[in-house]
Specification:
Elements (H helix, E strand, L loop, with lengths): L1 H17 L43 E3 L22 E3 L2 H18 L2 H15 L5 E4 L2 E3 L1 E2 L10 E2 L1 H18 L4 H12 L9 E3 L5 E3 L12 H17 L4 H17 L23 H18 L2 H16 L8 E2 L2 E6 L8 E6 L10 E7 L19 E4 L9 E19 L11 E5 L7 E2 L2 E7 L2 E19 L7 E4 L1 E5 L1 E5 L6 E8 L3 E2 L6 E7 L4 E2 L9 E8 L2 H4 L9 E3 L12 E9 L5 E8 L1
Parallel strand pairs: 10-22
Antiparallel strand pairs: 1-2, 3-4, 5-6, 7-8, 9-10, 11-21, 12-14, 13-19, 14-18, 14-20, 15-16, 15-18, 17-18, 22-28, 23-28, 24-25, 24-29, 26-27, 26-28
Helix pairs in contact: 2-3, 2-4, 3-4, 4-5, 4-6, 6-7, 6-8, 8-9
Length: 605
Amino acid sequence: MKYNIVKYIILIVILFNVSLGCNSNADEKLASQKFNKYTSLDLVSHLSWDSLPADANDIVMVLYDSLMKSRYLIQKDDNVTDTTFYKEYYNPVTIAQYALKLYDEYIKTNSEYLLKDFLKQASFFIDERNYHVISHDEIAYPYYLFFEELYPIWYSGMAQGQIISVLLRYYDVTKDKSVLDLVVKTKNFMLKPLNEGGCLDFTNNGCYWIEEYPDSPISPNVLNGFMFSYVGLYEYCKYFPEDKYAKYILDESLKSLKQEMDLFQLGSWLLYDLNEHDKQACSSWYMKLQYFQFLHLYEITKDDFFKKVQYKTAYDIGNKTTIEEGSLIDDILFCDEIHEKNNDAIVMNNYKNDNILTKDVILYYKSSPSLVEHELDKVFDNNTASYFHCEKFDIEPNNPHYFILTFKDELTFDTMDIYYPSNDFYSYIDRIFVLKKSKNSWEEIGFYKYDYEKFNIRYRFNKMVTCKSLSFVCYNARVQNGLVISEVELKNIVHRKKDNVFKRKLFSSYQTSIKYIPKDFKININIIDKKNMQQLSNKIKAEDVLIIYKYDNNPKMLTSKNYMYDESYFYNTNNIIEKKADFYQFLIIIKNTDLDIYIDGFDII
C-alpha cells in the first residue's frame, strides 16, 4: 500500500508541472513520424473481420449470443437491465484493431480501397457521439455491455491505448490537426488514476498497470491488454516528447512488465491475468497473440528481455500438446524439436486428438452424490446435449462433489476435457488425484485449466500420468442443485515424423540430457545444415540462439523443473556461467528460416 501512496504523490507532482504543458497545440512541434508495422496483430489477417456484421457506414460490429450471460449487450437507448439476446454492438477494441490491420495492409500494398476502409473505421473515434467527455481535457470510449462483474457503462485502458494508435495513423494520413486534441484527451483518461475513475492502477507489488478491465476483481492486471496500452502510449510519446507525465508512465510501465512477468509464468505457459484467487492459463489463441506482442515490444524497445520471453513463448507454443492448431498459424510452425546427430529428428510433439476414455476401459466408478447406473452412458455418448447430474444441495467444502473412475488397465494421459450442456453449467474442477497400480495412496496432480472451446474446459496436467484410477473433486458446483457434466475425455501425446504441411517455421529447439557440472563453465554448440552438411555459422547468428538452463543438486528433481527465461542468455562462446548446482539441463532455442538442422556437438568447457 505504501508503494501506491508514494507513486500517487509522484503523479500529482508531475501532473502539476505539466498540467498546461501538453495540448493540441503541441502538433506545431511534431516531427514527421513513420509507423512500423503493428506487429502485435500479426496473429490475424484484416480479412478476419469480413465475417463480422457492419452498420450502414461499414463500421464493424460484434454480435453476442444468448449463451454468453456475462456479455449481454445493451444499446445506448436501452435500460441497463435490458438483456436482449443477439444484439449487434460497437466494440471499440474490435474497431481499433481492424483499423490498425487496414493501415498496415494499406502501407504494404498502397491500396486505395484499404485506405478508404481505414478512414471509415477511424472516423468512428472522431465522431463525438461515440465518446464521453469526462472533463475539459479527458474523453473515454464507452462499453455498453456487461462483462463479468462490470456493468455498463465502463471504459477500457486497452481500448484507449489502441484508439490512440488509430488516431495517430489517421493524422499521419490526413494531416488533420484537430484529431490530435482527441489523442491527448484519450491519453489523459487512460493515464488517470483508477481511484479517480481512470484506467491507471497498481499491481500488488506497487507496479503501474494500465487496466483492460478497470475495477475488475475477476480479471485484474491483464497481460495482453497492458501490452496493447503500452504500445499506444509509446507511439503517443513519440509524437509528444514534451509530455513528461506520459513519458514517466511509459518508463514505469516498461519496468512493470519486466518486474511482473515472472508472476504470469506457469513454467510452460502463461497466465491471462493476476487474479490470485483463480489462476487461469490463457488460451492457445492468447498465447500466440502474446508471442507477437513480445516481438512487438522487442522491436520498439530493443530490450533483450522481451526477445527472451518471445523465444520462450514460441517454444512453449510449439511444445504444448493442446491440439495441432495450437501451435500453427496459417501453416506456420512456431517451434519444432531437433536432436543430435544420428538420431531421427522428431519434429513436433503433436496432440493426438483421440479420446482414450471409453466405457469399455472402465472397470467401475464411484461418485458423490451417487449416480444411477444408466447415467454413466451419458458420459461417453459423444453428445453434449445428454449429461449426468450429481444432484446435491448446499455443498460444503468438507463434503464436495467427487467422481472416481477405475480402469481395467492403467491408462497414460496428460489432459482431461470436460464438456457441459451450456455455459450455464460450468463448474471448475478444484483438485485432481490419480492412483497407480503399484501404490496404495492417491497422488494429487497439478494442473492448469482454460476454456478450450464452446462448452469445454481443458485441464492440462503438469506431467504425463499413468494410473489405474482417476478422481476429480469439485467443491462448489455452479448450479445450485449439483454438478452437471456432458462428457469426460482423456487424451495423451504421440510423436510423429516431420511432414511437409508447414510452409515455414519460426524456431527449432534442442534439449540436452542432464549433465554433471564440476565448475564454472562455457558452452560450445555445433549446428549443422542437413542439406549440405555444413556448419551454420553464416546463416544462424549467435544472437539468434537462446540458451536456457535449469539446475539442482539432485538430478532426479530436474525433470520436474521448468525452464525459466530469467536463467538464460544469447549464445556467446566467451560467456562463463557460474556454477550454482552439481547438475544442469539445457534448452537451446534457435531462430531459423526453414532450415533442416541438427546438433553435431554440445560441449561444456
